[in-house]
Amino acid sequence: MRRAKLITSRANVFYLSGFSSTNAFIVLLDGKRYFFTDARYYESAKNLKGFKVILIRSSLIRSLKEIIREEGVEMLEVESSISLSLFNSLKKLGVKLKPIRDILRGKRMVKSKKEIEILREGVKRLDKVFYELLENLDKFRTEREVRAFVVKRFFDLNSEGESFPTIVAFGKNSAIPHWKTSDQKIGRGNLLVDMGLIWKGYCTDFTRVIHLGRPSSLYEKVFNIVRDAHLFALEGVKVGVSVGEIDRRAREYIRSKGFGKFFTHATGHGIGVEIHEPPRVFFKEKTKIEEGMVFTIEPGIYLPSKFGIRLENMVVVEGGVGNPLSEVPLQIFKV
Predict the structure, then answer these.
(1) Pair (22, 132) in one structural domain
(2) Does residue 305 come out as left (phi exceeding 0), alpha (psi in the -120 to 50 range) or beta?
(3) Are 64 and 22 members of one domain?
(4) pLDDT tens, position by position, 192-204
C-alpha cells in the first residue's frame, strides 16, 4: 500500500520548510516533498529548496487529488490535530485516512546543530534584555510597563516578538504561576519575570526573580530551595535517563524541604518552533533523553498571598549531559 503523509500544522510546516504561512501544506512521499500554498504566498515560496511547490488555485482537495492520482497513493497519514471539517473534506480524495498523533514527534524532539545554534543565539539576546531590565527597573511603575519595555527590546534586537505573553508578576501575584500581567503597581517585594522571544522561528523561555528592597528570611529560604532543586534536576540530565527522572529529582527535593504541595506544575517542557513541545518534563514521562534534546528546567514554589519563586533555564543535551543556554546566574537579583 503506497502511503503519503499530509502535514497541516503551521509549526510542522515551518519545521520542515522554514517557510511561515497561514495557508500552506506539505505532502511527504518516498523522499519527495510537495509544498502547497495559495497565491498570497506562492511567489515567495516557489523557489523553496527540496520541494515541488504547487499553487492552490481553487481548493486544497483538488490540488491534492492530482498528486494522489499521479503518485498512486492509497493511504494518507494525517495529523490527528486537524480540524473535523478538513478531515471530512479529505474523505473526498477516495483514499484511506490514518490520523497520527505527533506525526513529527521524534524528529522535532532532537535538534540539529543548526537549530541549537539558533536557540543559543536567541537566548543570548534574552539574557541581554534581562540585564537591561535590571538597569532600568527604577523607571517602571507597573507590571505592564515592565512588559512593554521587554517587548520593545525584543523587537529592537530584530526578534519576531514574544514566544508567549511575557509574565510580569509583582508581590502576591507571583504566587500564581501563569499570572496575566496587569496594571499592578510595583513597590518593595518580589518581581517574577517569565519571558521568551522568537529568533529565526524558534522560541526561547527564561524566568528569574528580582527583589526590590531587602528580602525576608523566608524568601531567601524558599529561593535557595528552588535553586537547589533546579541544580539537582540539571545534574540528572544524562543521555539514556528518562525525562521523568528530571522532574522526580526536583519534586522530591522540594518535598523533602516541606514545600511539596506548593510546587504545582511540571518541571519543564520541550521547546523549539513551539513554546511547548514534547517531551513534557514530568515524572510520568518515560521518554529517554537523547543527544540534541532541548527542554526547560523550571521548578517553582508558590506561597498563596505571599510570593512565588520560579527559576527557569533552557537546557541543551550536549556531550551526553545537560548544559544551560542562559548565562544569567541563579541568584536573587536585588535592586
Answers:
(1) no
(2) left
(3) yes
(4) 999 999 999 999 9
